[in-house]
From TrEMBL:
The lineage of its organism: unclassified sequences, metagenomes, ecological metagenomes. This is SMP-30/Gluconolactonase/LRE-like region domain-containing protein.
């Protein structure tokens, strides 16, 4: 079977460094799954949802007992998964069928399948509005879903090869990393309009892959990998001050980054 790693970090008053992190459990997500590529956590129920791109299904993990409690068939090649905890809905981007699967988190049942753009890659849900934003890597767009009624209500052009997407519910902003054009797109989550396109700095000369939001500090983190073959082993995390859409910091990391997450509670 495939394994899901859970990482724990120190919680003392002193700042935590990489040596403070530790693997607390290794979980096999099932004998009939392959290529787990993404996961999301429902903070209210404690359930973890793992997208298995090679077996076209979702593993549902009970976080309290670290056991797999369900395996849900979805569309071809699920690449991304997002949770609307307030509605207990799970959204899965199926890049092989250009669709999003909607799952009821209570009964682990598929309740809708929605057509979106070409090669949906990632998605993020806004619990305040019930909207879900889907990055369509193959069509350079973001599909906007009304999660309350399971309807696609808009499409926003954002640039070449959009990949990671994240939402700041408090500010009503959506951030989309484009691996092809190397920029960060900013969308107004209410009007569904593109309001800014932030190019990466020359020092980061990179492809943007994923994005995460720290709502408490209103900062956005962009994971990048080097665009030049000579720097193929390098990576950078760009820190954007979302109050004025300016670069606040650039953090070098030893290897390319294609995914990241931010914890607003700890600032990590």
């Amino acid at each position: 079977g495939l394994a899901l790693l859970a990482i724990g970090a120190a919680t003392g008053a002193e700042p935590a460094y990489p040596q403070d992190a530790a693997v607390v459990t290794t979980l096999t997500v099932g004998p009939d799954v392959s290529q787990p590529v993404a996961l999301a956590v429902n903070s209210r129920t404690g359930r973890i949802y793992v997208a298995n791109a090679g077996s076209d299904n979702i593993s549902v993990v009970d976080g309290a007992s670290s056991t797999v409690i369900a395996t849900i068939p979805v569309g071809p090649t699920p690449r991304g998964v997002a949770i609307d905890a307030s509605a207990n809905r799970v959204y899965v981007a199926n890049s092989g069928s250009n669709e999003v699967t909607v799952i009821d988190g209570e009964g682990n049942a598929v309740v809708a399948t929605l057509p979106v753009g070409k090669e949906p890659w990632d998605l993020a849900a806004d619990p305040n509005t019930g909207r879900v934003f889907v990055s369509n890597r193959g069509s350079g767009t973001v599909s906007v879903i009304d999660g309350r009624h399971n309807l696609v209500i808009g499409t926003v052009s954002v640039g070449s090869l959009p990949t990671g997407v994240a939402v700041n519910p408090d500010m009503g902003r959506v951030y989309v990393a484009s691996s092809g054009s190397g920029h960060l797109a900013v969308i107004d989550g209410v009007s569904n309009l593109l309001i800014a396109t932030l190019p990466l700095t020359s020092e980061a000369s990179a492809e943007a892959w994923d994005v995460a939001v720290d709502g408490s500090s209103n900062r956005v983190y962009v994971a990048t990998s080097a665009a030049e073959a000579s720097d193929a082993d390098a990576g950078t995390i760009l820190v954007i001050d979302a109050t004025n859409n300016s670069l606040a910091a650039s953090i070098a990391i030893p290897s390319p980054a294609e995914a990241l997450a931010a914890d607003s509670a700890s600032g990590r």
